[in-house]
Amino acid sequence: MLLTEPASPIERWALDPAIVHINHGSFGGCLRRVLDVALAVRTRLEAAPMQFLVLEWQAEIDRARAALAAFVRTDAGRLAFVPSSTTGVAIALHSAALAAGDEIVTTSHA
Asked: Residue 107 and residue 66: Cα distance in Å, rounded?
């Protein structure tokens, strides 16, 4: 990813610098650039909801999926956006062809 101007890693985040943030993976912690883009999308939605949701939303999702596919070097048709990591894991596990005696190896971050 190319940055338009150099910034220290902490300046790229909207996190309060007076607090030591050890785990923001579960509850927020967005890059300022992500927040800016999200606000722009919400503004478009609020300005013309029907136009955005009926005519533009799917094209935006397809564009984002194509950009991600190029980044991870795969076909866009092999990617799907899900609302959370829990949902993604549930979908992956549900689609796995497991048989009696099969085992799933996982990590524990507890």
From this structure: 30
Task: Establish if 70 belongs to a structural domain.
Answer: yes
Which tens digits make up the pLDDT trace of 35-54?
A: 999 999 999 999 999 999 99
Q: Which of 11, 17, 12, 10 is nearest to 1 (CA)?
A: 12
Does 49 map to a domain?
A: yes
Tally of CB atoms within 10 A around 97: 5
Range of the domain at 45: 28-95
Residues 50 and 64: their CA atoms lie apart, in Å, by: 20
Predicted TM-score (pTM) of the model is: 0.65
